[in-house]
Design goal:
There is one protein chain. Helix 6 links the parallel strand 11 and strand 12. The chain has 355 residues and is of the alpha/beta class. It contains twelve helices and 18 strands.
Length: 355
């Protein structure tokens, strides 16, 4: 087996480079996986733009975290897997013993282990992730669809924490990859979905992924009023999920929800961001505010079942493919979010050595 591989390395703000690096060495309980497909992600885009992530990585470092591939080597003590198995591995795993894990909140684990390096020919899967968040891919499910598990698991947790009921009116603000996953998942759950989008191409995408109504942001349009007009008696939605991560949309979310409803601030603005909320409306409206973070081993499995059952139509999210050498250009183009041009939802990075 080769000693070196091609991998994308993050060196700092908007600085990605394809380099020749050593193939990762594995220890007890670990797997070495040959990448079949890795997906672009909004979190990776934020890290690319800022040059770091306080919790997940410090440059220079291997980059990318949505990955599926084939096991090529195993460390001592691995059970349940063998070389040649097709697997999908999440980007993290909880410790199982801290306060939050004991309280069944493993997404908030005090010792959450993260793993990066998906944009490469090979990736090491740490023992804890092997044990808790690595799953076999059924025959017939392509690598690029399986790799959707991790972001979808975040969406599944976010939706579950809103406690939707069939027939609820649910608003999704934003139609990027995460917003579209919320639209599709809420639709599967039996909700009536209203999407709030910005670009022309997002109107069609939102409808294709399951939105019953679409409100497009435009000059002279009162977005909040337009949304409320689509809800029973103009009272507002049962649930509003914010997926844009701006102060303005956080504030609009509270104005779009009905009394007794739930707002999930899913989109995370930069540290230090401040918003202004009407305390009177929150208190006398009995409004629940949530801000779901990350995923759990259980939601990884529920998300993967949505993919493998075909209900998620995961193929719809993969709208482009690229090679490892293309990754720096792909992320540079992802920074451009202006105008009404069609943008890719997810790009599958396919290393040349993948099976």
């Amino acid at each position: 087996m080769a000693k070196t591989m091609q991998a994308v390395v993050l060196h700092g703000r908007e600085d990605l480079r394809l380099e020749t690096v050593s193939v990762p060495e594995i220890g007890p309980g670990e797997l070495l996986v040959r990448a079949g497909a890795a997906l672009t992600c909004g979190t990776d885009l934020k890290v690319f733009r800022r040059g770091y992530h306080a919790k997940m990585l410090v440059p220079p470092t291997l980059f990318g975290h949505e990955i599926a591939g084939t096991i090529v080597a195993m460390g001592e003590g691995v059970a349940g897997f063998q070389p040649g198995d097709r697997v999908v591995a999440s980007n993290s795993a909880p410790c199982g013993v801290c306060l939050f894990c004991r309280r069944d909140q493993p997404n908030l684990c005090s010792d959450l282990m993260f793993n990066n390096g998906a944009y490469a020919e090979y990736i090491r899967i740490p023992a804890r992730i092997v044990e808790k968040n690595t799953l076999h891919i059924p025959d017939g499910v392509p690598f690029e669809q399986a790799a959707l598990m991790e972001p979808l698991a975040c969406v599944v947790l976010g939706l579950e924490q809103c406690f939707p009921k069939p027939g609820d009116t649910l608003v999704v603000i934003g139609a990027g990859p995460i917003g579209l996953m919320f639209i599709r998942t809420a639709h599967i759950s039996g909700c009536r979905v209203i999407a709030v989008v910005k670009r022309d191409d997002q109107v069609a995408s939102a409808r294709r992924f399951g939105a019953d109504e679409v409100v497009q942001i435009a000059d002279g349009v009162d977005t909040v009023a337009a949304v409320r007009a689509l809800t029973p008696e103009n009272e507002g939605a049962d649930i509003v999920v914010e997926c844009v991560a701006t102060p303005a949309t956080w504030e609009q979310s509270v104005d779009m929800v009905r009394k007794g409803g739930t707002v999930n601030f899913f989109g995370g603005p930069p540290s230090g961001t401040v918003v202004a909320l009407d305390t009177n409306r929150l208190h006398y409206g009995d409004i629940t505010l949530k801000a779901t973070f990350h995923h759990t081993p259980a939601t990884n499995r529920r998300a993967f079942e949505l993919i493998t059952s075909g209900r998620m139509h995961a193929e719809d999210f993969i709208t482009a493919t690229a090679s490892l050498s293309d990754v720096p250009d792909v992320f540079a183009k992802m920074l451009v979010r202006s105008g009404n041009r069609m943008l890719d939802i997810k790009t599958a990075i396919l290393p040349g050595s993948a099976a």
